What we know:
The complex is a heterodimer of chains A (566) and B (163). Chain A is 36% helix and 16% strand. Chain A has helices at 2-8, 23-30, 43-57, 69-83, 110-114, 130-142, 185-197, 207-211, 215-225, 256-264, 277-280, 316-330, 336-350, 368-379, 391-399, 420-430, 452-458, 473-482, 498-504, 515-527, and strands at residues 13-17, 36-39, 61-65, 88-94, 120-123, 148-154, 201-205, 229-231, 246-249, 267-271, 291-296, 310-313, 384-387, 408-409, 436-441, 463-468, 508-512, 533-538, 548-549, 558-559. In chain A, α11 (277-280) links the parallel β10 (267-271) and β11 (291-296). The termini of chain A are far apart. Chain B is 28% helix and 40% strand. The relative contact order of chain B is 0.21. By secondary structure, chain B is of the alpha+beta class.
Amino acid sequence: MIVRFLRDEGVKYIYGYPGGALLHVYDALFKEPEVAHILVRHEQAATHMADGYARATGKAGVVLVTSGPGATNAITGIATAYMDSIPMVVLSGQVPSTMVGTDAFQETDMIGISRPIVKHSFMIKHASEIPEVLKKAFYLAQSGRPGPVVVDIPKDMTDPTQKFEYVYPKKAKLRSYSPALRGHSGQIRKAAEMLLAAKRPIIYSGGGVIMGGAAAPLTELAKMLNLPVTNTLMGLGGYPGMDRQFLGMLGMHGSYTANLAMHHADVILAVGARFDDRVINGAAKFCPNAKIIHIDIDPASISKTVKADIPIVGPVDSVLTEMVAILKEIGETPNQETVASWWKQVDEWRGSGRMFPYNEGDGSIIKPQMVIETLSEITKGDAFITSDVGQHQMFAAQYYRFNKPNRWINSGGLGTMGFGFPAAMGVKLNFPDDEVACVTGEGSIQMNIQELSTCMQYGLPVKIVNLNNGVLGMVRQWQDMMYSSRHSHSYMESLPDFVKLAEAYGHVGMRITDLKDLKPMMEKAFAMKDRLVFLDIQVDTSEHVYPMQIKDGAMRDMWLSKTERT
Amino acid sequence: MRHIISLLLENEPGALSRVVGLFSQRNYNIESLTVAPTEDPSLSRLTLTTVGHDEVIEQITKNLNKLIEVVKLVDLSESAHIERELMLVKVKATGAQRAEIKRTTDIFRGQIVDVTSSVYTIQLAGASDKLDSFIQAIGTAAILETVRSGVTGIARGDKILSI
Lengths: 566, 163
């Protein structure tokens, strides 16, 4: 009944790992040709694969794990999806209902363990309710503010000897759940008027624009009013990265221009963003002169850390579309002199060089920033880029120029090392003709490296761009800046030979140590369309990520290099 | 400020744990909690009291509303309401004290519901501060045991919480 439902729901791939509690389900999968199952090497990777698919498409990824350790191994991936509001349905096996609560073999209270990190969860009580509960799970995961939903299924609920009539439920019925379908028109009009009258306006947009499919109306609005745009880490690609109006990412490692423009703004239009601590720096000093318009599907995100002057609860795409329509109806344009003087100021901050300046070194040593610039150039800003967590993640966010939404895939909220590679696999499986690269480091990649085997089995030719500096770079950076360079346990003594390791799994490995080889080798790797290539790139160990906001300061308080600050 | 938040909750296993879990997960205060099914057996009515600044209370109500099993919610303290709590107290009652305790109980409109030669068990209903005052009046030295139900409440007038 589960497998039939998945087929009828249009699920093409599920990611999982079998076990005792799920054997009935796996037997049904064996007989169903339309639902393909990807066997991972560790359940965490299954959740990240489903997550990568969900971030690239906006649809729920489906995970199948067995009870006990299978379920607990999935927890990190569920928490990752929860923190970034990613739709996911996790089906976990459970011991037979008659044995629940007896500490049976491979029993764990999955509903209890996952409770704080799911949007909702269900335990199947009667086999006959499976289609209805699964329909609810998909509906909850994908509607409103998306999130992971767990369905715990005791083994006896899948017993094939029990027969029930199966009807695919067309709609989920939930009397206590009704996400906002549109924003309040009066509020939207007030916001439009505030933007028209603003002297120093800015758009600050987040992951909600990506998952809410609102990149197009956001771009239209920004163009219409000639507004500067900054994106959060989760929101990159929500506005074209190459466009003149784009100021780069904001926040802890945001651009000088974006953080200064935010600090001096008089009106901030926050769209699908949640004023996270990694964005606003010290809440007390945040943007002292700004009025805040906040559009979000989740009322609990509004006025949580920063009070909104005009709150608008609704789906960001419909709210922005309505705002554009209202502006057209009003028919006014902002005062041209005011707009010009604000842009003059912004352009002065921006200067003429790179958005994120760095020391290019002696011409032989490879700077990590150069790797991302080269990657961006080779793939023309159109590839799916996934990342792990650390310095390489920030470099990717700063230097890759994302032209389209849903192409930048990283664990922003939870910051899960080991996320990037399986996420890239999930994307590649569903987008076989697109370039998919995982930007990682020698620390993160080892957290799910076993999936090289899965890639071989299913032919997933992702490109792994390993910025190997031999240390846990972000930890080391903090130790340099805040702990007098005491590098406590941020150095791994015995790294594997990644080239040989890739080869051992049947893939191609390449090592790049000299700058002159960087571009040709990378081009060569991307030319191998049907092979997984592991690029092990030796980069400068001493490099730090800048700018870096100074703790508890305002948006504008930043370290710009090891010696300069604002 | 103290708030009385009242909700209609799907009467399903696990629903209560989500409400309670939310409070510990987000570091909110919970002072008292009562829950029981309503006349519609598919719904439970849950009343909780909590203390916090307005911003915190706003987050509490928003996050409670986000729980899928919360059907409806009202912050009773925002308007006129009736608040009740039930208390049972066991007190030492010997000699001259017996009459004194009886008198105090009458003043508070309580009832003595169980009697032994040395102990009175008193039942008292009312707003929480009335119950507090009674304890003060009797004196903690005489009290052997107290049990309180936690606060429940309902809005005054025509306002109702239903689906």
